[in-house]
């Protein structure tokens, strides 16, 4: 199971570590890889030890963008356990979601910021309540147990990414926007 980003509270990686601990308690051991660096590294490492999953948890630090596809290729899922912090900091729309879809990797995410606009539960990914490690563990367990679900989410995510982020669509949208602004302002 893969997660990536700055190791900061808004990313919710502590929820993911707790979910992996819950899965281990249930007898399902997963390998967890969290890519990135930041002020929560020590907290996350301590939490992995506390939950008894340190041996199955990798935190290799920063990664090169060109290496991300390789990390995705070996992943059961990309997890985006985002949260709204006490100060109101939250995710926007993480680009790692589109990258996972393009690679055919299913996405599991909390509905925070712009995420619910693109990750639709059971269609383009699995959604769990933010801060709920038990619900996240349930989502991961579903993918572990159901290869057909994994394949469905993989294909659906890839199709969704092609619909949302294709160069043709983006160029058409840009041209339409320019035309509508030109008509509105009278320029042209």
Could you explain the architecture of this structure?
With 188 residues, this protein is mainly alpha-helical. The chain is built from seven helices and six strands; from the N terminus they run βαβαβαβαββααα. The protein has helices at residues 13-25, 41-50, 68-73, 95-103, 133-145, 147-165, 167-185; strands at 2-4, 32-35, 57-61, 78-80, 107-109, 126-127. Strands 1-2-3 form a three-stranded parallel sheet, with helices on one face. Helix 1 packs parallel to helix 2 (41-50), helix 1 crosses helix 5 (133-145) and helix 4 crosses helix 6. The protein is globular. The N and C termini lie far apart (51 Å). The model has no long low-confidence stretch (mean pLDDT 91).
Structural class: mainly alpha
Q: Whole-number radius of gyration? A: 18 Å
| Overall average pLDDT | 91
How would a textbook summarize the main sheet? 3 strands, parallel
Largest sheet strand order: 1-2-3
Low-confidence stretches: none
Q: What fraction, in percent, of the residue positions are helical?
A: 40-55%
Estimate the strand proportion. 5-15%
The tally of strands reads 6
Distance N terminus to C terminus? Answer: 51 Å
Continuous helix count = 7
Output the helix-strand order. Answer: EHEHEHEHEEHHH
What is the molecular shape? Answer: globular
